[in-house]
Design goal:
elongated
Length: 418
């Protein structure tokens, strides 16, 4: 990214404080002073604070005309000489309170917890969630109303055209490099990156002599204690920020998927730690077609279920029917809804025997074969479907279509009585 940072000089003082001096910028005819959201937040703090709007207009005009000289940025203060139209000049300063050491400690601790924050800063970016997370940690990075205090040799008691022009010019610098903002808050780029590097360096333990390792080759250490299953799955990250998402990205859908992943991870951990888990049958891997139904069964947002329907090649009504089947018996129930299969001779003989023994003669319904694995009750609006596992699934007719009516059972008579 090209920017005005290439025109700056850096100075270090004896107390380790940094100062950066930026050469005077060219006139800004026909362009805004801030394009980034953090640059605009800087100007909003200025414009919400100043009592005289005319002074701001004049200062904005001075900045556009290139009347602001070199800008010096150091912790807690920015300074420049601003030239009036009559040729006179004034030294103008804007003071902003530095963050305390405790504030910086909280900010750095928050930043190292999320690699994305560090990557954004290194890319000269300040995403909204970085500022929001900092605020949650008790650190306000951006100025608020009344935070920018003016000082000028013209002796105005409020923001004058000179301090206003300085603030508008600084907005151009902030657009290109958010480290300018952080330097005003008390930490320059070098110091900040050094602190981050110190906190992210891995703690490498001292090595072990090879002879000791070889001598202990047959010693198997005890397994660590099994972790406890959390009482509930973790909450998903909040993705609805002030920044607009990239085209095609739905924050609500991403939050739903993250919550689903956390819930499934907790269920898998609970299953792995349950007594006798090694004797349980292996988990069946779902196809994308099946997983779309599983996701929809846990979702109340019609926008998301609409996307699941389209992605799985179903109409919304077809997905609703699949969800109904899923809630009765998962993938096995969904298979009975969507697939018709032909039992082999042995499976078919067992099915007919089960149908023969399910009722006394006087209670026996009249059944008509309606497919390879389906028997319909004549005049009853009910149907039995045989699953591949030998269980029977009840269906009923609604508005001319067969819909799932309940869970499965090995007894076809018990299924119809529900």
């Amino acid at each position: 990214m090209s920017g005005y940072g290439d025109l700056s000089e850096e100075h270090m003082y004896g107390d380790g404080a940094e100062e950066r001096t930026f050469a005077a910028l060219p006139p800004a005819h026909g362009r805004g002073f801030a394009e980034t959201w953090w640059g605009q937040a800087w100007l909003k703090a200025l414009e919400d604070t100043a009592l005289d709007g005319q002074q701001l207009k004049t200062g904005r005009r001075y900045a556009r005309e290139g009347a602001v000289g070199a800008v010096s940025v150091r912790p807690g203060r920015i300074t420049a000489v601003v030239r009036d139209r009559d040729g006179s000049s004034h030294r103008s300063d804007v003071v902003w309170q530095r963050l305390s050491d405790d504030d910086w400690d909280r900010f750095l601790g928050m930043a190292v917890e999320r690699a994305g924050h560090i990557a954004a800063l290194l890319d000269r970016d300040m995403p909204p969630h970085l500022v929001e997370d900092a605020a949650t940690a008790g650190v306000e990075l951006l100025p608020g109303i009344g935070d920018l205090e003016p000082e000028c040799t013209c002796e105005a008691w409020d923001h004058c055209p000179h301090t206003a022009a300085l603030c508008y010019q600084v907005a151009r610098l902030l657009d290109q490099d958010p480290f300018v903002l952080l330097l005003m808050r008390g930490r320059g780029e070098r110091a900040l990156l050094a602190d981050l590097a110190e906190r992210t360096e891995p703690d490498i333990p001292a090595g072990v002599p090879a002879a000791e390792v070889f001598a202990a080759r047959d010693i198997v250490p005890p397994l660590p204690e099994a972790p406890e299953v959390p009482a509930e799955a973790g909450a998903p990250p909040h993705l609805d920020t002030e920044a607009a998402p990239e085209p095609g990205v739905d924050p609500a859908a991403l939050e739903f998927l993250a919550a689903d992943a956390a819930r499934r991870a907790r269920e898998m951990l609970a299953e792995a730690l349950a007594p006798g888990h090694e004797l349980q049958p292996p988990t069946i891997d779902l196809t994308e077609h099946q997983d779309a139904v599983r996701l929809a069964a846990d979702c109340d947002d019609r926008r998301i279920t609409g996307r699941l329907a389209a992605g799985s090649g179903r109409r919304p009504a077809e997905l609703d029917l699949a969800v109904q089947a899923w809630r009765y018996g998962g993938a096995a129930s969904l298979s009975v809804l969507e697939e018709e299969w032909t039992p082999g001779p042995e499976a078919l003989a067992r099915a007919k025997d089960a149908l023969a023994r399910a009722w006394q003669d006087e209670d026996r319904p009249v059944l008509r074969a309606s497919g390879a694995n389906r028997w319909t009750v004549v005049g009853g609006g009910a149907q039995l479907r045989l699953g591949r596992d030998g269980r029977w699934w009840p269906y009923r007719k609604e508005r001319g279509a067969w819909v799932p009516a309940g869970p499965a059972d090995v007894d076809p008579g018990a299924v119809l009585e529900r």
